[in-house]
Design a protein that fits this description.
- The protein has 661 residues and is of the alpha/beta class.
- The chain is 54% helix and 8% strand.
- It is built from 29 helices and twelve strands.
Length: 661
């Protein structure tokens, strides 16, 4: 049916009124107006598309799908209409049926990129990322001049963790559409996930200069800046985001994730920031009542909430403890935001009674799912990290909620988080008031390290062969503050032939290495005494400790897993603890293996201690020969002992909830 000239003007007017109502968030009236519009002009695809949008906003996804389908049939080569229809099929829970229809469309018109693009989007929504990328690559091949296809492909590849291919697709899209600031922002995020922090920061800063800073952009820019070791600048950017959006959890997360790295931030100041962040998280409209039987001695269902139940510090520091819980007393339930299939993720799957992917669940759905699972004790292993779900914990997933590892740099500040796993070194009584949770002190250290089976053997002390001491720090450069650089330069000044090796992902960026080299040069340390190393596979990473005599811990954010790894490789660590939880990790690990004499009291003591240890080569050599056996026999690696202590702690918090004596 054709549209006459008499029909056009009224239809156009109705379409304008309908879209205005949509902008005003009045979908009910928009539906009424747009139904009249499509009645007058049934061949107007834009009217059907607007009607589909109105139906969706009005909570009728199946009707929306019908209207969008009509628009798509009228203009089958429209990418917008095809993608909108696919998105709506996902919302209407008819994705599989829609895939079959799209396959027919693609077969009928094999040179049309729209059904292939829609197939890719829908496969992505269904979690089938590799197939989605294949379909989108085919669409991009059919129409290589359409920047939207390359951008969509880049986004799908990035979300599927195929980051190298994602970068290539995004750069192809930007070459076609250089003013697409949203796409450039996404490229910056992908580069950051590839640990190319300098390049990421450059892209994000470009967007900020071009369009100004919104909260999301500023948070990502703060993160990239922090990862380059520019702590004060990163904090200023994060605080700018929080000022722009004072009620935004995202902005306050950026602030509290930066504060632990900044010099002179007290535990009290950090707790205040954490409480502000927690206060922005949505809660249930009413207090949920749990019906879990309050029997203090029955077997417990323990939920493990994390996106990092895999080869990650969370895995290396917790899996042995979970594996050594009494299976007759504790049934572990994995609530996992990960699709990993590495050695540690397989161990987590083996030790859990059930494994539930949660990436597709929002906080409300996750809370509901956890309650259906009747979890008694929920252990959060993500904190305010990238895949952390403390926002879901604010809705309460279980009667008892416990924070352990996973961005455990200090308290959560969350009133709904009941307990915080720790030890006497991490949280002495004098610091207990800087935590919002009750402290659950384990009898030894707060973690149990699982050394990888592929770790190389410990080598002889390198200084006895090279003739000079080599200090090392294998770390996230965010931890290397200007004060740390001054302290390290002072150590090298006291031992003129000593060398320093710093290894970090950030050194993939040459400008970052040059900036740090210049900082040492200003303090009188020649570049010939310094070595910057970039990332490497984990086995190679561990083997590089074979050339290090003494590890120098950064401060105020000290080493966690890196200190455990250094000790396992025979390399003791000089550390300087502070007030916050993050500032005391190495203190806990060193004390747990009986190396309390490697702990300094202040910066001057740190420098003097490093010098004294470096001048005792015989003592260093003897310690190196015995250190792995010593660590293995210590509570740090005694998995059975740790499992007993962890089990007793979980039983204690449950009995407390039950009101048992």
């Amino acid at each position: 049916m054709s549209v006459t000239l008499a029909d056009v003007s009224p239809a156009a007017d109705l379409l304008a009124r309908g879209t205005a109502l949509l902008r005003q968030r009045n979908p009910r009236d928009a539906v009424a107006v747009l139904l009249r519009c499509t009645g007058l002009a049934p061949d107007r695809a834009d009217a059907w598309y607007a009607l589909g949008t109105a139906f969706f906003q009005d909570g009728a996804p199946l009707r929306a799908l019908g209207a969008l389908g009509r628009a798509n049939r009228l203009v089958p080569r429209s990418l917008d209409y095809a993608l909108g229809r696919a998105e709506m099929a996902h919302h209407a829970n008819v994705g599989e049926a829609e895939l079959s229809r799209l396959a027919d469309d693609a077969a009928d018109d094999p040179l049309n990129p729209a059904p292939l693009a829609a197939t890719g989007l829908l496969l992505h929504r269904l979690g089938r990322h590799v197939e989605a990328a294949d379909s989108l690559e085919a669409a991009s091949t059919l129409d290589p001049a359409d920047a939207r296809l390359w951008a969509l492909l880049g986004g799908v590849l990035a979300r599927g963790h195929l980051l190298g291919r994602a970068e290539a697709a995004m750069r192809r899209a930007l070459a076609l559409d250089p003013a697409n600031h949203g796409l450039r922002h996404d490229l910056g995020v992908a580069l950051m996930r590839m640990h190319r922090f300098g390049a990421a920061r450059a892209e994000l800063a470009f967007v900020r200069e071009a369009r100004g800073g919104d909260a999301t952009l500023l948070c990502n820019l703060a993160n990239a800046t922090l990862c380059l070791g520019l702590q004060d600048e990163a904090l200023a950017i994060a605080r700018e985001a929080a000022t722009l959006t004072p009620d935004s959890p995202l902005a306050h997360r950026a602030v509290v994730n930066t504060l632990p790295y900044v010099a002179d931030v007290s535990a009290t100041e950090l707790l205040a920031g954490l409480r502000r962040c927690a206060s922005t998280l949505p809660r249930e409209p009413y207090a949920h009542r749990f019906e879990n039987p309050p029997d203090p001695d029955r077997p417990l269902r323990v939920g493990l909430l994390s996106g990092m139940l895999k080869t990650h510090p969370v895995g290396w520091l917790t899996i042995a403890g979970f594996e050594n819980l009494n299976p007759h007393q504790f049934a572990l339930i994995g609530l996992a935001d990960t699709m990993a299939n590495d050695a540690l993720s397989r161990r987590f799957r083996a030790v859990t009674q059930a494994w539930h992917p949660i990436a597709a669940l929002d906080d409300e759905a996750l809370a509901a799912a956890a309650r259906v699972l009747e979890i008694d004790v929920l252990i959060d292993l993500g904190g305010y990290g990238d895949l952390g779900r403390l926002s879901a914990c604010a809705r309460r997933l279980a009667p008892v909620q416990v924070k352990w590892v996973g961005m455990q740099n200090h308290s959560t500040g969350l009133a709904e988080m009941d307990w915080f796993v720790t030890d006497d070194w991490e949280t002495p009584p004098s610091l207990a008031h800087t935590y919002s949770e009750r402290l659950l002190r384990l009898p030894d250290g707060y973690v149990c390290y699982s050394p990888p089976a592929y770790a190389p053997d410990v080598t002889p002390l390198p200084a006895q062969q090279s003739g000079h001491v080599t200090f090392g720090c294998f770390t996230n450069l965010a931890k290397v503050t200007p004060r740390v650089v001054v302290a390290w330069a002072a150590i090298l000044g006291r031992i003129p032939n000593a060398r320093l090796v710093v290894k970090s992902h950030a050194f993939a960026d040459a400008a970052t290495a040059a900036r740090l080299r210049d900082a040492f040069a200003a303090l009188g340390v020649a570049a010939t005494r310094l070595e910057w190393r970039g990332p490497s596979p984990h086995r190679d990473f561990l083997s590089e400790y074979g050339g290090v005599d003494i590890a120098l811990d950064p401060f105020p954010y000290t080493g966690g897993l890196t200190t455990c790894e250094a000790l396992w490789m025979g390399v003791p660590t000089v550390t300087l603890p502070g007030e916050t939880f993050a500032a005391r990790h190495s203190l806990s690990h060193l004390s747990n293996v009986g190396l309390g004499d490697w702990v300094a009291g202040n910066v001057a003591d740190y420098v003097a201690l490093a010098e004294a240890k470096a001048r005792d080569l015989d003592g260093l050599a003897a310690l190196r020969r015995s250190l792995r056996a010593r660590v293995k026999a210590s509570p740090l690696c005694d998995a059975r002992r740790f499992g007993v202590g962890l089990g007793a702690a979980l039983r204690f918090v449950w009995r407390d909830w039950c009101g048992a004596d």
